[in-house]
Amino acid sequence: MTKPRVGFYDLTGCQGCLLSVIFNEDEILNIINAVDIKEFRFIMGEKYDGELDICFIEGGVVSNDDMDVVKKLRERSKIVIALGTCACEGNIQAMRKFHDKKDIEPLTYKKNHQNDDIDEARAIDEVIEVEYKIPGCPPDREEIKEFIKQVLIGKKWHDYKDPVCIECKLRENSCLLDKDVICLGPIIKGGCKAVCTTNGLKCYGCRGLTDDANFEEYFKMMKEKGFRMDEVKKIMDTFMARRVEKALKGK
Amino acid sequence: MATKEEIIARNPYLPELKEINYYKRESPDSFTIRLKWKLNHGAGQFIFCSLPGIGEAPISICSYSPEYVELNIREVGNVTNALAKLKKGDKLLVRGPYGTEYPLGALKGKNIIIVGGGCGVAPLKGVIEYIERKREKFGDVSLFFGFRTPEFALFSEQMKSWKKTFKLHISFDKIENPATCTTGIQGFVTQLVDDNVKDSNNAVAVLCGPPIMIEKTAELLEKKGFSDKQIYISAERLMYCGIGKCGRCMIHGKYTCLDGAVFRYDELKEHMD
Amino acid sequence: MRRRDVVAPVKTDKSRFQRIENPDDIWLDENTDFPIKKFFFSNREVLFEFSGNKVKNPSLELKDTVYFGVRRCDLNGIMHQDMVFLDDNPDPFYKARRDNSILFGLHCKEGDEYCFCNSVGLKDFFDLMMYDKGNHYLIESGTEKGLVFLDEFKKFFEETAEMISDNDRKIKNNKKLSTTNIKYMYGNESWEDLAKTCLSCGACNLLCPNCHCFTIQDEIDFDLKSGRRVRVPAACQSKGFTRVAGDHIFRETRVSRFKHRIYHQIQYFKERHNEIFCTGCGRCIRGCPVRIDWVKKINEIKDGN
User: Which of A110, C102, C158, C176 could lock onto C66 through a cystine, CB 3.0 to 4.6 A?
Assistant: First the structure.
């Protein structure tokens, strides 16, 4: 069996997703043996511009440069995976649409990059077609590993769609909502093994909304707990401002 | 008391390995395989097929023979897509049989109306093979099958012989070249039933297909005087265990795996959602 | 005396059952926030292992265990799971754990604002049951297994002529489900009002001492040959619960999923096993982020409101 040609690439992001791949220390050699890694700048110097069977892309599309890169990667890849929340949802970068430019300007690395020469920051599936999404900020390293194995045996990957609460309850955590914390668990896709809530952190929603997220009731519940809608929305905006905007418009 | 090892040795989830000794592409999205497996089963029952690492899926048996088990499998998910890549001589993991059967033994002397749509025709092939073995025990037997297009028709070989033994009617949702199509009419299977079924006396209907087909056909048959106790249907649900534990196949308290997949229509009629 | 593990309630931020290292950790003040079911119906069960096409039964780590301080609601939950997992086609993993268990119950005197066990007809189901009499406990044995256990550990117990009175057996409830005959209510439109407040988070399923639905999936190792088939709990309130290959979802609407849970609890299980599934522990209301009170809803429909 010929090994699939795999590339790991990054657009605008923090590279935490690619780190998650490497954080599979115990199995990284297995991964390297199972696939033919053509480019992965964290572990090798080689560049590659040929065809890819599997192409992981982390980061969001925030500039014309990113646009070019992602379109070219698409052209030479059979399977494209949006890796991490920037690639899947837009993440932090996408927030700029919802703020005044002058508020954001002091925060950008403008010396090195021209990274706002397109109107708004996008998830990569808004620019190109992607076969799979592995969300998470960062994505779960175990899930990346499972994904690679499943693709290798020819399976179609089904992403985890159940809410965070299920895994959180399995771990017998006390519910943060009862402590009047704006935890997004009930309306956010799990698969993260409830890692944040298990460690006392609220769910910020890095894996995106569930298929049938019940916004109306979630906001109502928060209102009853004494929160204003903008306070709740601010938490939601962290990772998925664009999705939330669309979802709320649809209501 | 049984030891831990003795208890686990009776593991109902543990499948056994069976060999494929026949493989045929049946339609653009389905294939038929025959397993070397002497399985005592009833018409309408199902088994679980699996491939290690890929997973397991319930598949209805489409034959009725003491010598082998035939399956017609539609490629819709990971398991069925992977099964499609097997070939003659390959092995797969199986367990079963599970579920209820069409009560054919109790239907002696009756006129039988068999209505199938798409991949729902597969389990009905088992019913037909049962009837063929005991043809003299049944009255009139009429077959009504609906497929998407002529190329999606299943069991074209068998249809030729069924045509001789039974009253066979076929419809296609769409026919590209109606002039060249000699096997069936353009339309839905309900139309065939409407045109050809006249009498509900001493008759039993056996339906299998998409929920909408079952619903419409049953409605039509009831208009023609069938009671819901004269109609048998086969239901499909997500299933993981087949033994009434995983809870996934439950329809209003009925387990599709234990109480079905074959139900008498009055058992489920209210609950077709 | 045979050495056994003890599983009993412990309270930290929440109360739950744990294997006990230090007897001082045992906490019996109130019912636990989480049910005991994970000890019998595991959160991740390996059903078998495979290497290529070769399959073999898994090895199972088992410890003789006393489950101590289990309330009647959880005990009846185990009884219901027995009906499912120890039927004609018994689940070997569940059975092995149950065979190795002593159920040592603790009788509740009073429920909290959410529980309603008196409404669902709980049965006596235990090997041993403790009744708190202030300065001592009275112990009742429910099975031969319980008696043998008492005999084995008799140095910890004293024989007494004191009887367990009817009063001792009472549990004061503050909440009531006024009927368990809900079949006729299925079409009632006001279910929709309640179901639309549901976040479909599945917390109720996981907190329920009865809920036992599961998913079976395969895991494979990097050699792409060896692996195992495992089962993990599933929640019927999540949208994907009835999703089949080809992406059809049978219970797509929130209200159909919501009613499925309530009807399984109150009606469906009773039709099959002659017992009401729900044990009235109230965890599904207490642990619901929006405190959906389906008991109140049934009472209202019954009263015609």
Answer: C102
